[in-house]
Amino acid sequence: MTDKTLNRRTFLSAAAAATAMHVNPLLALSPGVQEGAEAFLKSWVTAWNRHDARALASLHTEDAMTINRYGTLIRGRASAEEALSFLLGPQGPFGDTVFPPMKIVALREIAPGVAIVQSSWGAPVLGANGKTVPGQFNEMILTYTLVKRGADWKTTQIDGHNVEKMDLPYSSPDQKKQS
């Protein structure tokens, strides 16, 4: 069975299970989901800060898709490794940077072995020359769809975007513009 078939079956099973549940599946996590998400994020940041594209790619499923903060779509583990090798290599914009730890903003288990984790992260600001601006970070939200593979959690979908502060009636204090 291919990873693609397995991912489709996992998704369809998750949708059916969530629909059939009589309790709200968002209220409680199965044992190990929180710890698995935290371990995944720690592994991600550790590999990123070591500039280890291969280790980062190993955290993806074979058919993972990433949409980065600039709207670029990357399909598959091999393409992710290629993109990460550039970004984190000496010629890339993040080749000499260290990112802060990620923090979980929200975590939902949508089916056994399938979770969505949204995390906050500070990404260095890129200047017009394509290089990072020392000491300046953009606030970001990275959303990972994680699937359990054996004892490990892998990402099958990543969406990254910068956070734009806005003063809206429903904005929490940390979402509001600082004047």
Brief synopsis:
The protein has four helices and six strands.
Tell me the layout of helices and strands:
Elements: H1 3-20, H2 33-49, H3 53-57, E1 60-67, E2 73-75, H4 77-88, E3 103-111, E4 114-126, E5 132-149, E6 152-162
Parallel strand pairs: 1-6
Antiparallel strand pairs: 1-2, 3-4, 4-5, 5-6
User: What is the terminal-to-terminal distance?
Assistant: 55 Å
Largest sheet properties: 6 strands, mixed
Please tally the β strands and state the result.
Answer: 6
What value does the Rg take, in angstroms? 17 Å
Question: Biggest sheet: strands side by side, in what order?
Answer: 2-1-6-5-4-3
Helix amount, in percent?
Answer: 25-40%
Keywords:
179 residues, 29% helix, 4 helices, alpha+beta
Outline the structure in words.
It contains 4 helices and 6 strands, in the order αααββαββββ. A hairpin with a 5-residue loop joins β1 and β2 (73-75). It has 179 residues and is α+β, with helices and mostly antiparallel strands. Helices cover 29% and strands 35% of the residues. It starts with a helix and ends in a 17-residue tail after the last strand. Residues 19-26 have low confidence and may be disordered. The chain has helices at 3-20, 33-49, 53-57, 77-88; strands at 60-67, 73-75, 103-111, 114-126, 132-149, 152-162. Strands 2-1-6-5-4-3 form a 6-stranded mixed sheet. The radius of gyration is 17 Å and the shape is globular.
